[in-house]
């Protein structure tokens, strides 16, 4: 089972969030790969729309698409971000912005995401909710999240391992979260209309939808 941790702390190996994410990953029993966004070159999306005209193409020559390719081959993705002013960090938001093709074409369908957040306060529900919403926007189901105040990190090991186990079980059973699937169906309706409307501007995404049998 392929598990990908995307760590969005700028603090590399010192990251509390990454430590918690590694515990979640070890609970899965899967083969774990890690990407530290602080170690990759990531530029801001310039809204040129090239990625909609040509799938997995981008005018910016940095590392964003190599990270997105890893997401496409993972079965479980752990999105790990410190809480920065009640949001994910800028690096994770930048990666998300660069992934709008994933949203148009629900490219993470069949995959499962877990969220991991750490903070000074431990008041992280807004950040975890956002990670869950992003997962669903990309067509993935959200297995759940864990957060911790830095001061309480050591106590969180059992919960982190349990979340990892849940993520692995969801992948193995292809568990269906009916509430999430219902939300995703609504969103799919929206994009079905958009993709049809824009079929001349976004020919490859239109073709992708057609090949999936979604049109
Ligand atoms: C720019 C910035 C913004 C932050 N905003 C918050 C916040 O809104 N709430 C909070 O509880 N902690 C906040 N913190 C504290 C971090 O979330 C906390 O130190 C976190 O554990 C760092 O994770 P890391 O060790 O993985 O880098 C902030 C820290 C920084 C540097």
CATH topology: Rossmann fold
Helix share, percent: 40-55%
Average of per-residue pLDDT values = 97
CATH architecture title? 3-Layer(aba) Sandwich
CATH class: Alpha Beta
CATH superfamily: Flavodoxin domain
Looking across the biggest beta sheet, what order are the strands in? 2-1-3-4-5
Classification by helices and strands: alpha/beta
Distance between the termini: 31 Å
Count of alpha and pi helical runs: 9
Describe the main β-sheet briefly.
5 strands, parallel
- What hetero molecules are in the model? flavin mononucleotide
Low-confidence stretches: none
Q: What is the gyration radius calculated from CA atoms?
A: 17 Å
Strand content: 15-25%
The domain count comes to 1
What shape does the CA trace take?
Answer: globular
Write the H/E string, N to C: EHEHHEHHEHEHHH
The count of β-strands is: 5
Protein architecture, described:
The chain is α/β, with parallel strands linked by helices. The protein has a single domain (2-212), classed as Flavodoxin domain (Rossmann fold), CATH 3.40.50. The protein contains 9 helices and 5 strands, in the order βαβααβααβαβααα. It has a 5-stranded parallel sheet with strand order 2-1-3-4-5, with helices on both faces. Strand 1 (2-7), helix 1 and strand 2 form a beta-alpha-beta unit. Helix 1 (16-28) packs across helix 7. The longest helix is centred in the C-terminal third of the chain and has 20 residues, at 178-197. The structure holds flavin mononucleotide (FMN). Residues 9, 11, 15-18, 82-86, 118-121, 123, 150 line the site of flavin mononucleotide.
């Amino acid at each position: 089972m392929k598990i990908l941790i995307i760590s969005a702390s700028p603090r590399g190996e010192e990251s509390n969030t990454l430590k918690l994410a590694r515990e979640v990953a070890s609970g899965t029993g899967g083969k774990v790969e890690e990407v530290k966004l602080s170690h990759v070159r990531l530029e801001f999306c310039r809204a040129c729309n090239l990625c909609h005209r040509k799938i997995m193409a981008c005018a910016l020559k940095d590392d964003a698409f190599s990270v997105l390719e890893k997401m496409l081959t993972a079965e479980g993705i752990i999105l790990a971000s410190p809480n920065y002013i009640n949001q994910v960090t800028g690096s994770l938001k930048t990666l998300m912005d660069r992934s709008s093709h994933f949203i148009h074409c629900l490219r993470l369908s069949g995959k499962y995401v877990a969220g991991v957040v750490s903070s000074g306060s431990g008041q992280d529900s807004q950040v975890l909710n956002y990670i869950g919403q992003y997962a669903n926007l990309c067509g993935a189901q959200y297995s759940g999240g864990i957060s911790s105040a830095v001061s309480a990190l050591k106590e969180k090991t059992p919960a982190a391992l349990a979340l990892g186990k849940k993520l692995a079980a969801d992948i193995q059973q292809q568990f269906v979260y009916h509430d999430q699937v219902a939300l995703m169906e609504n969103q799919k309706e929206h994009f079905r209309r958009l993709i049809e409307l824009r079929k001349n501007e976004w020919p490859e995404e239109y073709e992708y939808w057609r090949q999936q049998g979604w049109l």
